[in-house]
Amino acid sequence: MGSSRFPGKPLFKLRGKEMIVRTLERAALAECFDRIVCATDSEAIADVVSRAGFEFLLTGEAATGSDRVALAARALDLDLVVNLQGDEPLVEPSLLCTVAQTLVEHPEGWVTVACPLSPSDVPLKTVVKVLVRDGYAVDFSREIPANEASLWLQHQGIYAYSRKCRDEFSSLPQSPLELERSLEQMRILGKTPIRIVYSPYASVSVDVPSDASNVEALIDESKNRGFYHERA
């Protein structure tokens, strides 16, 4: 709820339905998870999620999303977890299944997602880029040299990790580079392998208010073509 670029973002309504609810619905469509839980420190979010028929867990304050997931997973006594950030209301359900299966096969490190980087997104600081080598992330940045854009992919807000990896992450202090770039993964880059799942689907997250209208247009387009499914 305290997003600096979009205050109250999780409860912003996209075509009449809160963003967090749309994101949870996409996770449910994947049909590959034993349990879907919204981890939040906001009672307002918890109320909306509960009324939509989803489970929630209230945590204390957390420095990052992965710190919050670590708190929630510890309270729920979970091992393997996929962390889908709440601003991914158009995430492809089959991609979530691929991430989950990759974690099952490779629980020794983190798993995250990269997709094609649009030339128009190269100069945008709101779009996180990832440099990949031999299937693993070697750098993340919001700003990259224009002449190196072809070497980078777009990073998508999905992480997956085991209990051991989460505990390692949450036990470390926030690193200077993590704080400078506002990217939580920088805390463990170089310490823990970050395996990349490649996705052909463009990442359509909502980072700033102007992104919301783009998402609504895509929802309308998908519904008209019969591709967008949601719970009634």
Helix-strand layout with pairing:
Layout: E1 13-14, E2 17-18, H1 19-30, E3 37-40, H2 43-51, E4 55-58, H3 65-76, E5 81-84, H4 93-105, E6 110-115, E7 129-133, E8 136-141, E9 152-161, H5 163-171, H6 176-181, E10 194-198, H7 209-224
Parallel strand pairs: 3-4, 6-10
Antiparallel strand pairs: 1-2, 5-9, 6-9, 7-8, 7-9
Helix pairs in contact: 1-4, 3-5
* CATH architecture assignment: Alpha-Beta Complex
Report mean pLDDT, rounded to a whole number.
92
Would you list the SSEs in sequence order as H and E? EEHEHEHEHEEEEHHEH
Q: Strand-residue fraction?
A: 15-25%
> Helical stretch count?
7
Number of strand segments: 10
Based on secondary structure, the structural category is alpha+beta
Radius of gyration over alpha carbons?
Answer: 17 Å
How much helicity do the residues have? 25-40%
List low-pLDDT spans. none
Look at the structure and name the CATH superfamily.
Spore Coat Polysaccharide Biosynthesis Protein SpsA, Chain A
The CATH topology is Spore Coat Polysaccharide Biosynthesis Protein SpsA, Chain A
Give the termini distance in whole angstroms.
25 Å
C-alpha geometry: globular
**Main beta sheet strand tally, sense and closure:** 6 strands, mixed
Given this structure, which CATH class is correct?
A: Alpha Beta
- Domain count: 1
